[in-house]
Amino acid sequence: MKRFIKKIHMLGIGGAGMCPLAEVLQAHGHKVTGSDKINSVATARLESMGIRVQYNHDVDLVRNADLLVYSSAVRENNPERVYAREHGIPCIRRAELLGDLMRAHFTVCISGTHGKTTTTSLVGTILNDASLRPTVLVGGVVRSAESHAFVGTSNIMVAEADEYDRSFLAMYPSIAIITNIEADHLDCYSSLDDIKDAFVKFSERIPFYGAVIACKDDTGVREILPRINSTVITYSVNGDADYVAKDISFVNGHGVFTVVKHGVELGTIDLNIPGKHNVLNSLAAIVVALEIGVDFKTIALSLKQFQGVKRRFEVIGVEKKVTVIDDYAHHPGEIRATLDAARTSGYNNIIAVFQPHLYTRTRDFINEFAESLGKADIVYIADIYKAREEPIPGINSEAISDRIKASGHKYVYHIPDKAEIIPEVVSNVKENDCVVIMGAGDIWEIAPTILEQLKNG
Question: Is 196 a catalytic residue?
């Protein structure tokens, strides 16, 4: 592709899937340009790398492009897509381009409803620390690198494989991790069974020399295992798997556990991020690294030093002995895991601040959102971040708060404007409390102001 395609224009270049791809393409010598609706931290980083980004749909940058790449969120009537089609400029989905890049690599794909970004970062970090020099594409900013991507020199690639819009069916995994399978993206899938069928099809893309690394603790994953014809290696925290994490404890926000392979203890891991869900995420990464040939000592040291991913249980700061954490959690299962991680970290009260993401997701999981958020001691819910959608009558944040209150929870507040949540949080927190800000929209923006007001209060 490099020989014939020089100039690549990317629509939605600041998105979580597009940004790392842009970095990799630029590093490989392509002239990358892009457009996005929002001037963000991600686009600013791309611009600092010499990638020109425009914040409108002007076709100026498309005119000279050899290829136009678009994400699933970009519609067919987008002016830049229309121009490209009318002028014979090839157009390709992001997932298809990523799949083409995978053909030239031994690729580890990380799939699942939750945990993809953290697990991808863990796998990439371990392999990099083992001097295997992989190319890594992450849907979040890896804190140690301050980047969405590592550009390596070996033939190993590590990348997220997103099930949204069935994108992962365009990819070519050598090894595929499946972390979990739950109902989500029901705007693209008809049912949970439809999602499971897609994961089975994804597993069929693995070559004879590859393997599926599957979480046996997850019901959805367990149910598809009999349908997978590839080699399957299982992992678990509950036993009865090829790899098991046992003797799990949480000390000062760290997960400490022993890794067992086929009944033989390999050693102890001191994981530098909290939560039982991250024990599972790290165990998946450990399995990949061991199967590739990385020694256990290197893996253990890498995980002890792992700094995490931005917006994944990221400690933004501590003021007046109140900790403020930001997390990307936007699905009931993710909220549950994030709040459980906060509980295991030894805080007094957990204050959840949540901004729902998408009207369809809120509609499809309204009861599950109420159940998960009810685990917090105090709950503040902002209005829905609509993203790519139009409002759905009767679907709103207040409906979630009403359901939580109906369960008997006394401290639940629907505050439409996220800015108005700030003084409420500041006036109600106490020493050794933890404020957990969650959502895939722009709710993260209030974290610094909460800390500032705590400091000055």
Answer: no
The whole-angstrom separation of Cα 124 and Cα 136 is: 6
Is 116 catalytic? The answer is: yes
- Stated pTM of the model: 0.88
CB atoms near residue 22 (< 10 Å): 29
pLDDT digits over 415-439, tens only? Answer: 999 999 999 999 999 999 999 999 9
Does residue 160 carry a catalytic annotation? yes
CATH number of 7-93: 3.40.50.720
At 1 the pLDDT is: 41
pLDDT in tens, 126-178: 999 999 999 999 988 887 767 778 899 999 999 999 998 899 999 999 999 99
The pLDDT tens digits for 114-126 are: 999 999 999 999 9
The single residue of 23, 160, 163, 319 carrying the catalytic annotation is 160
At the top level of CATH, the class of 314-456 is alpha beta
Catalytic residue among 43, 107, 117, 338: 117
Which residues sit opposite 147 in a β-bridge? 142
Catalytically annotated residue among 80, 107, 113, 116: 116
105-305 topology per CATH: UDP-N-acetylmuramoyl-L-alanine:D-glutamate ligase (3.40.1190)
**C-alpha dist (Å) from residue 168 to 36, 93, 196, 408:** 23, 12, 13, 41
